[in-house]
Amino acid sequence: MNNKHNDDSQLQGFPYLTDYLYYLSGECMLARNTILSYENDLVRYARFLLKNGFSSPVDISADEITDFIALLSEEGLEPSTRARMLVAIRMFYRYLETEKILKGPNPCAVIDQPRLQRMLPAELSPEQVDSLLRAEEGDTLLSVRNRAILETFYATGARVSEVSTLKLLEVDLDQQKIRLFGKGSKQRLTPLGRAAREALGYYIDRRNELDKGRGNPYFFLSRTGKQLKRENIYRIVVAAAKKAGITKDVYPHLLRHSFATHMLSGGANLRAVQELLGHANISTTEIYTHVADGRKQEDYFRFHPHAR
To answer: Catalytic site residue 16?
Structure first.
């Protein structure tokens, strides 16, 4: 737990909060980062109650909770953040209820979970992707490596963690495939198109200039021959976008979104895209169909002779 919060004298009127965090750690065996997330959300809620004259989380009604969530909205917090905080509060009151600490009804019982607006993923246009890839044209060692990284993202829809942990033995240019390890160590074989094979081939030819015979198993290496970490890959993508003159925020996951959207816009089967992305549930992939359908509608009105 975060002792900084536990030692906060302002929160001494909330002894149940400390007990609850120990419960999450000792009995529920939740991960430390999960507990810290709950703690941060509940400390913010506790301070709100204290500021409004409530010295305990027990003697409040649903109105105080809805006022807190409304305040978060006024402060500009994203719907997903507000929903997460409400989940933390619900679980806290469920604990108080189970421990028979609540004197009255559970105030969360009458509060509906807010429906989150499903955000459409951002994407780059095919032209912007071309500009991004051309930004790393050149024959310097790092340009060759960076072009291979960008081509890998766009050719496979890989996550940044998958690119960072990609190993040399998992790249098979003869079979035109690479093996990616996604969430939960689930693996998938992903095809490599011509442009990606060429870029990866150029990089493989010069990779030992970074490895210097050390035998590092990771595919993408830093200038010192170490595994290229995800934060460095992020910076490479951002720098390439700046070189390309792309003004919108560009990050590795944006290339994953662009891969999925461009595949579906081109007529790819949804199930195939799901497998290529490594999504466990097809509903996760379906969000890209909204973007692709929107583009098809634009093309319809642009190109059909009788639609204009």
So the answer is: no
